[in-house]
């Protein structure tokens, strides 16, 4: 099983849209795929897949301790924390795609959103265990949509990843912020077992090709990070996002899906060994 995370310097880059459609892309190619909503600051799966009501959330794997139930009949009963196999639910959009939701009401400063280093050391151990258990369940690809910027939960996801896709909108602060992220965080964590890639998203139509090439060279020459995708702004996709629809319908001529398919093929090729 290969683990691919999607990360960004800041929110609003279209990271979650790309993550979901990459997961669907792998599923359609016959690979059993598990997509995890680990964007703990702003989880979205619950608002997208409104018909699904999972019993457990991603946070529960790390935060749920033994708690008393609400049952008056058995006040001494406890809730048993979930195991990794308890978390996935069927997506209902493709037989090869399962999902894990995040808590839709995050508690900032608590659990995975805390800065408690001891908590996150233990969380990393549990994350490695979960990764191993997911592989035993037969998944070929694990796609993790992380929280943007620098936080301990996202750092743990980077540590366990086989590949990271860093999504940015190509403007001054997007380029500068992503450069900072790569220099100050990714380089520190090393790339012995992880391949890092750049995805330029929401490129304004009419942007000169020369400028796009210049951006690509900036990351490749200065930081050794390859660009795996360049996606132009699509008003139709942006409009759908307003209504919580991040899944792009099949269309062989859709530039976004063509770009997603190239990313999926590239990742599969690079990670198959």
Provide a descriptive summary of the structure in words.
The chain has 273 residues and is α/β, with parallel strands linked by helices. It has one domain: P-loop containing nucleotide triphosphate hydrolases (Rossmann fold), CATH 3.40.50.300. It contains 9 helices and 10 strands. The chain has helices at residues 15-28, 45-48, 60-63, 117-136, 152-160, 172-189, 209-223, 235-242, 255-271, and strands at residues 2-7, 33-38, 67-68, 78-79, 89-90, 97-100, 141-146, 163-168, 195-203, 226-232. It has an 8-stranded mixed β-sheet with strand order 5-6-2-7-1-8-9-10, with helices on both faces. A two-stranded antiparallel ribbon has the order 3-4. It is globular, with a radius of gyration of 19 Å. It starts with a strand and ends with a helix. The model has no long low-confidence stretch (mean pLDDT 88).
Kindly list the characteristics that best describe this protein.
273 residues; 40% helix; alpha/beta; globular; 9 helices; Rossmann fold
Could you write a compact summary of the structure shown?
The protein is an alpha/beta fold and 273 residues long.
Task: List the SSEs and their pairings.
Elements (H helix, E strand, L loop, with lengths): L1 E6 L7 H14 L4 E6 L6 H4 L11 H4 L3 E2 L9 E2 L9 E2 L6 E4 L16 H20 L4 E6 L5 H9 L2 E6 L3 H18 L5 E9 L5 H15 L2 E7 L2 H8 L12 H17 L2
């Amino acid at each position: 099983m290969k683990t691919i995370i999607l990360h960004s310097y800041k929110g609003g880059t279209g990271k979650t849209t790309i993550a979901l459609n990459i997961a669907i892309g792998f599923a359609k190619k016959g690979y059993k795929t598990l997509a995890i909503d680990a964007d703990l600051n702003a989880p979205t799966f619950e608002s997208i897949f409104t018909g699904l009501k999972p019993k457990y959330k991603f946070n529960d794997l790390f935060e749920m301790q033994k708690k008393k139930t609400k049952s008056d009949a058995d006040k001494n009963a406890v809730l048993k924390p979930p195991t990794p196999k308890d978390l996935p639910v069927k997506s209902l959009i493709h037989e090869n795609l399962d999902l894990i939701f995040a808590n839709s009401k995050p508690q900032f400063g608590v659990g995975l959103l805390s800065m408690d280093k001891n908590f996150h050391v233990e969380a990393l151990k549990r994350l490695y265990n979960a990764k191993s258990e997911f592989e035993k369940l037969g998944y070929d690809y694990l796609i993790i949509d992380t929280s943007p910027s620098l936080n301990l939960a996202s750092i743990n996801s980077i540590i366990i990843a086989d590949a990271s896709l860093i999504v940015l909108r190509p403007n001054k602060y997007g380029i500068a912020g992503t450069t900072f992220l790569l220099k100050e965080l990714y380089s520190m964590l090393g790339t012995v077992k992880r391949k890092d890639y750049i995805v330029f998203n929401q490129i304004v139509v009419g942007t000169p090709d020369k400028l796009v090439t210049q951006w690509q060279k900036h990351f490749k020459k200065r930081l050794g990070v390859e660009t795996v995708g360049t996606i132009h702004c699509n008003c139709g996709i942006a409009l759908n996002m307003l209504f919580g629809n991040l899944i792009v319908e099949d269309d062989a001529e859709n530039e976004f899906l063509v770009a997603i398919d190239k990313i999926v093929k590239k990742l599969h090729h690079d990670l198959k060994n």
